[in-house]
């Protein structure tokens, strides 16, 4: 029987986007944004850079190329230890990466009265605003625009900014390219685990088509950046998340062996991280990476994430091929894991912990 979870939480949204909040509060950070968890490392300058390998997309996608098998082995090792990697030679042009960054920049530069036409509500993930939180929880220091981009017929265009002429065209083109990359990555991951090439892709695609959500992140600068977080430590509910980092301002950090590491900015690469659902499907061989975002004191930072998951009605669980006497089943099966994740997220707990047998 599939696991399910639906606790009642009192959720709320911030009164104002942070872009507007700092216009009135100045350097004073409201109490609700102060990050209060113990043992937080405030001095981010002493944190080392991650040293996981860069993965070459061309070597993953063409079995005829010399080095293909070596790259698959490198992929498995990286995802079993780090749960994430930088992807190069992915085929997205520098021009397209520039365009998606530009439309994001244009959106967050719009006047509030224009952006507020796209406000989200506490019960609706799509739209402009911040995250939902529960009582006594600190807020993330960011503003976001969430848009469902795939399946195409489920796009909710009332949230898509019509005041930016090329926004829809650019996001559509970017989504198609990311979906192409996603399919190859899922097939390469399956091959690296000695599964049929399309095994993970079929699990994620299903009859309804894979679910893809675009998340435009904007992190305003904060003079008290050692007291706030752009994103609190978490793993993603997705199968795979494909991230385009800021071109200049660092902030993303990942956790490995209970230590934090900075993710460097490498021009024209995509940052790929495994989410909870692929960890579950792989029976724990692949690791869903815990990560967070720190905020710069003086410079704003932005990023574009495409979160990729199976349809909500698709039941997921460890693949039978990855269960044996040496590695028994580690996780329950579950339907609508994202909903379960969203219920756990405001509590600060990891939903995947509840999935373990």
From TrEMBL:
The keyword Metal-binding applies. Residues 210-310 form the Fe2OG dioxygenase domain. It comes from the Eukaryota. One of its GO terms (molecular function) is dioxygenase activity. Keywords: Iron, Metal-binding, Oxidoreductase. Pfam families: 2OG-FeII_Oxy, DIOX_N. PANTHER family: OXOGLUTARATE/IRON-DEPENDENT DIOXYGENASE (PTHR47991). Belongs to the iron/ascorbate-dependent oxidoreductase family. This is Jasmonate-induced oxygenase 4. It comes from Spinacia oleracea (Spinach). The gene is LOC110789419.
């Amino acid at each position: 029987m599939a696991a399910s979870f639906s606790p009642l939480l009192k959720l709320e949204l911030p009164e104002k986007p942070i872009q507007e909040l700092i216009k009135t509060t100045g350097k004073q950070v409201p109490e609700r944004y102060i990050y209060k968890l113990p043992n937080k490392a405030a001095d981010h300058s002493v944190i080392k850079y991650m040293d996981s390998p860069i993965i070459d997309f061309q070597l993953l996608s063409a079995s005829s190329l010399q080095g293909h098998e070596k790259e698959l082995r490198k992929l498995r090792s990286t995802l079993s230890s780090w749960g994430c990697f930088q992807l190069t030679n992915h085929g997205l042009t520098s021009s397209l990466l520039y365009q998606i960054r530009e439309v994001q920049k244009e959106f967050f530069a719009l006047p509030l009265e224009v952006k507020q036409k796209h406000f989200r509500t506490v019960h609706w993930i799509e739209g402009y605003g911040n995250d939902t939180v529960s009582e006594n929880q600190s807020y993330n220091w960011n503003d976001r625009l969430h848009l469902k981009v795939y399946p195409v017929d489920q796009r909710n265009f009332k949230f898509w900014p019509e005041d930016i002429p090329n926004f829809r065209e650019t996001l559509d083109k970017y989504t198609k390219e990311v979906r192409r990359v996603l399919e190859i990555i899922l097939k390469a991951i399956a091959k690296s685990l000695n599964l049929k090439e399309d095994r993970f892709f079929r699990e994620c695609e299903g009859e309804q088509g894979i679910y893809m959500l675009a998340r435009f992140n904007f992190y305003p600068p904060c003079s008290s950046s050692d007291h706030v977080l752009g994103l609190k430590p978490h793993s993603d509910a997705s199968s795979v998340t494909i991230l385009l980092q800021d071109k200049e301002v660092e902030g993303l950090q990942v956790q490995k062996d209970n230590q934090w590491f900075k993710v460097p900015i490498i021009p024209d690469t995509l940052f790929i991280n495994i989410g909870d659902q692929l960890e579950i499907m792989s029976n724990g061989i692949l690791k869903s990476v815990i990560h967070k975002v720190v905020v710069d004191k003086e410079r704003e930072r932005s990023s574009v994430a495409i979160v990729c998951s199976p349809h909500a009605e698709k039941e997921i669980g460890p693949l039978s091929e990855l269960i044996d006497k040496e590695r028994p089943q580690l996780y329950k099966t579950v339907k609508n894991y994202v909903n379960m994740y969203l219920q756990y997220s405001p509590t600060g707990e990891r939903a995947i912990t509840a999935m373990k047998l």
